[in-house]
Write a structure and sequence with these properties.
Blueprint (H helix, E strand, L loop, with lengths): L1 H24 L4 H8 L7 H11 L3 H32 L9 H47 L2 H6 L2 H43 L1 H48 L1 H6 L3 H53 L9 H30 L1 H12 L8 H7 L17 E8 L9 E8 L4 E6 L5 H8 L7 E6 L2 E2 L5 H6 L1 E4 L10 H6 L7 H10 L3 H4 L19 H14 L4 E5 L7 H14 L4 E5 L11 E6 L2 E6 L1 H7 L2 H21 L1
Parallel strand pairs: 3-8, 3-9, 6-7, 7-8
Antiparallel strand pairs: 1-2, 1-4, 4-5, 9-10
């Protein structure tokens, strides 16, 4: 028997080495590179320690779960012993029923204990799973609130959502049910081996010999199966993306006559998925029969060896029928935890990437952070010390500021200097990529300068908190965003303690009250997901009202009127002149007609100021701004002429 085991182990070892050699020699091929991406990750204990720290807070329920698992393993170990005792005493040639009531009571108590244990086990594991999911999501969401804009530049919303949903749920399931199964499997295996060696060490050795065979075979086949299924999931994601792309870009596809191309690409993906799925199914169809055959073969070997001992005249070898039954029962129970352990190890390997991604999301530090001294004085975003916040006047100064985005070598701004007076209106004009939005993002401290300093009221803005700065800035984006809820709630986000009257007054300033009053539920009208029930112009008006309600010392309009029709633009322009009094305003403009009243117009190109002055001064220079204004003027005039026909 030992010789056979060694031969099987050697065969599996050589087979694995051969497969690794083949994989290494094919690594330059694209398809094989994709397969290599699906290879199992080595289990990183440091990563899993961090994951376990997340759930260790609820120690009480974890202890309950562990105790339940221990009792479950004991129950699985004791039942065969009771049955063996019954065969020995009640089904022998000379049965003894003197203690039958003790046996019946013990059997009944074990049944009751099993029921209670299973209930406690399922309850505790389910609670741990839910608590783990919630805790991962809470910590991830909390960190997302603190992260800088640069994080969202490099990570898509889809990637973040996958970490918050599928990865969190997968890890919670593995941690709760996986660890439970792992603990149960080890305890039961160890218990069976201990009892087996105590009862009959010869049969115990036969049982022990089968362990590495089952374990290695299970790991080998699970690795193959999971590699294929991981490929299937990857291809399925590509198919989902293709579906989405086809749906979102249907009009473009039709106008470009891309139907045939799209169909061929989709069919190629489906064929790849079919091939991988069939491959995985084939491995599964081989694995399970193999395991079953080996399992029953092990039971047969034990039954034959034990039967021969039962019939032996040698007193040292002789075993009773009850003992033989015990070993057969243990052999049948032994291989379930072996396969379970192999499966769980594979699951942990498979979930390694998910664990790394989740920990990365939780532990990523923001690029923009306040120093300890600043936090001590001004507090953080969640615990602001507003009693120490100074008033902001609105004077801004760029002093030799250079900036480049993380991961790039090209500077967007290089030794940039600009003074913005308190209460002035400054407009930024330039082609795409000239640095307009970068300047206002730096003022908002969404990013920080690579070098140089930005002064707010003649003080380096890093010496005051991010919370203090953001509390004094109103920002109206080109693409307005509304939260789920009604109009009143959305506008009130500008000032959470604002009264209904203050909200209505802010809406009236931008003339949003006119369209709101025509809605069925007025200010209580739900805007839909991301404001889907409102037009772009209506959403922009609400976004503007929200900024006004906040009463900021610095107001930033980033192409804020680009999505609004001419009529509403005039309304907003009137509102702007009303609210910009005694307020520093920064306007990123595409429509030059909206900035003719600006105190200063900064014309940018490649991160440098090429022209600066008010509207009339720049027109007199007949430079870049003059040409740009003239072109837009004739385009708008031509469009008005066409509309009047």
């Amino acid at each position: 028997m030992i010789t056979i085991s060694l031969f099987i182990l050697l065969f599996i070892h050589l087979k694995n080495k051969k497969m690794k050699y083949k994989t290494a020699n094919r690594a330059n091929r694209v398809q094989d590179l994709e397969e290599n991406e699906d290879d199992f990750e080595k289990i990183d204990l440091n990563i899993w320690k961090k994951i376990f720290k997340i759930i260790i807070k609820d120690k009480k329920i974890i202890v309950q779960m562990m105790i339940a698992v221990v009792f479950l393993a004991i129950n699985d170990l004791v039942y065969p012993l009771l049955n063996s005792y019954a065969i020995e005493h009640y089904f022998s040639e000379n049965p003894n029923f003197d203690n039958r009531w003790v046996f019946i009571i013990a059997y009944a108590l074990m049944g009751i204990a099993l029921g209670i244990t299973v209930w406690c086990f399922i309850r505790a594991a389910s609670i741990v799973e839910e608590n783990t999911t919630i805790e991962i999501r809470k910590q991830a969401f909390d960190n997302l609130q603190r992260l800088s804009f640069s994080y969202y530049d490099t990570n898509s919303s889809g990637w973040i959502m996958a970490r918050m949903t599928s990865d969190a749920r997968k890890l919670a399931s593995i941690i709760s049910w996986g660890i439970v199964d792992l603990l149960w499997g080890f305890l039961l295996m160890i218990g069976i081996l201990i009892v087996s060696f105590i009862v009959n060490w010869r049969l115990a050795i036969i049982l022990l010999e089968l362990v590495p065979i089952f374990l290695l075979l299970t790991l080998y086949f699970r690795k193959k199966i999971l590699r294929e299924y991981r490929s299937v999931r990857k291809i399925n994601s590509q198919i989902t993306a293709k579906f989405n792309e086809s749906f979102m870009g249907s009009s473009t596809s039709k106008t470009l006559v891309l139907e045939d191309k799209n169909e061929k690409e989709f069919n190629k993906l489906v064929d790849r998925m079919k091939h991988r799925s069939i491959k995985a199914a084939i491995f599964s169809s081989i694995f399970w029969p193999t395991i079953l055959v080996l399992g029953y073969l092990g039971v047969a070997i034990i039954a034959i060896e034990g039967g021969m001992m039962n019939l032996s005249d040698n007193a040292k070898l002789f075993i009773t029928t009850g003992t033989l039954y015990l070993f057969i029962e243990y052999a049948m129970r032994f291989f379930d935890p072996v396969m379970s352990i192999a499966r769980i190890i594979s699951d942990f390997q498979q979930a390694q990437a998910s664990a790394e991604r989740v920990i990365s999301l939780i532990e990523t530090q923001p690029d923009v952070v306040d120093t300890e001294d600043v936090l001590e004085k001004y507090g953080d975003l969640y615990h602001p010390k507003k009693e120490n916040w100074e008033n902001l006047n609105g004077k801004i100064c760029f002093n030799q500021v250079s900036f480049k985005y993380r991961g790039t070598e090209k500077y967007v701004l290089k030794n940039f200097n600009l003074d913005i007076e308190q209460g002035s209106m400054v407009a930024f004009v330039g082609e795409t990529g000239s640095g307009k939005s970068t300047i206002v993002n730096l003022i908002c401290r969404f990013y920080e300068p690579t070098s140089g300093t930005i002064l707010i009221d003649d003080i380096d803005y890093k010496k005051r908190s991010v919370g203090w700065l953001h509390n004094n800035i109103g920002y109206v984006l080109q693409t307005p965003f509304l939260f789920s809820g009604n109009i009143m709630e959305n506008v009130r986000y500008g000032k959470l303690d604002a009264t209904d009257e203050e909200v209505i007054r802010a809406c009236k300033i931008v003339n949003a009250d006119e369209f709101i009053s025509k809605l069925p539920n007025g200010y209580l009208t739900h805007v839909g997901e991301s404001g889907s029930k409102l037009s772009i112009g209506q959403k922009q008006l609400l976004s503007f009202a929200r900024a006004i309600l906040a009463d900021p010392k610095i107001l930033i309009l980033d192409e804020a009127t680009s999505s609004i029709d001419t009529e509403n633009e005039k309304i907003i322009q009137h509102a702007i002149h009303t609210i910009l009094k005694d307020r520093t305003s920064l306007v990123v403009a595409h429509r030059l007609s909206t900035i003719v009243d600006a105190d200063k117009i900064v014309v940018l190109k490649n991160g440098q100021i090429i022209e600066i002055g008010n509207h009339l001064e720049l027109l007199k220079k007949k430079g870049y701004y003059f040409d740009l204004y003239k072109t837009q003027f004739f385009q708008e005039y031509e469009q008005k002429s066409i509309n009047s026909i």
